[in-house]
């Protein structure tokens, strides 16, 4: 059976029996027309003559861009492959072919975005940019303690502003952090962060506390510090430190994980500290560390 007839029947099936929207059908029709045209261009008109190698070559041509066509990104080529695979799967179900030649063709891998991180020197400059001297305001001491907690524990911003005074008073060596899905984890934090929190509790929080809130971090009205205000404190510190990177509270979490791994921490330990349900999520930070190693190699090795 001709490839165009199978394609026409499949599109009708998608419209009538699957009830796909007009926009989705338009997108499918565009991709299937491109696939049929490509096959006809190499002399194939019967779907029974298509091989796995043909599908692989089609995918490669999409990525390269041939015959004056713009090369597609990995995600766009992957969507086009999904349509081609759907067509061959339908042909098999309809008995037009005896094997699905596209089933084992894998979509191109998309470049995985690595989280933005700060160097240890940049983190130090960021935190030190917020005053902690005798002339520091209550808001300064609060913001410094907040930044120390974010970097010292890898807590999410929502987890940090959700801390209560009891969370730091009960066990001074660790924090009990309530994470996603109401899952609690125990995270140690260092002497520098503990000192910043202590200074805040002694010198600043009593000034800010105007009500009965048990929240650790308070706003100027005595209520719980919001995520937006915590974000603003970070942005202010970055400006003071002269850091031009577009950073967020999550940047400190990413930096925390990366610096732990670069310091020799086991990835499963970092998984527990971050509260990730799967180690696969944590392993993205090992890629960041590998990038650092590669850059160091390029700079240091005479034959790099």
Automatic annotation (TrEMBL):
Keywords: Cell cycle, Cell division, Chromosome partition, Cytoplasm, DNA integration, DNA recombination, DNA-binding. It comes from the Bacteria. One of its GO terms (cellular component) is cytoplasm. The keyword Cell cycle applies. InterPro entries: CB, DNA_brk_join_enz, Integrase-like_cat_sf, Integrase_catalytic, Integrase_recombinase_N, Integrase_SAM-like_N, Recomb_XerD, Tyrosine_recombinase_XerC/XerD. The active site is at residues 156, 180, 250, 253, 276, 285. Residues 1-92 form the Core-binding (CB) domain. PROSITE patterns: CB, TYR_RECOMBINASE. It is found in: Cytoplasm. Forms a cyclic heterotetrameric complex composed of two molecules of XerC and two molecules of XerD. Site-specific tyrosine recombinase, which acts by catalyzing the cutting and rejoining of the recombining DNA molecules. The XerC-XerD complex is essential to convert dimers of the bacterial chromosome into monomers to permit their segregation at cell division. It also contributes to the segregational stability of plasmids. This is Tyrosine recombinase XerD. It comes from Corynebacterium deserti GIMN1.010.
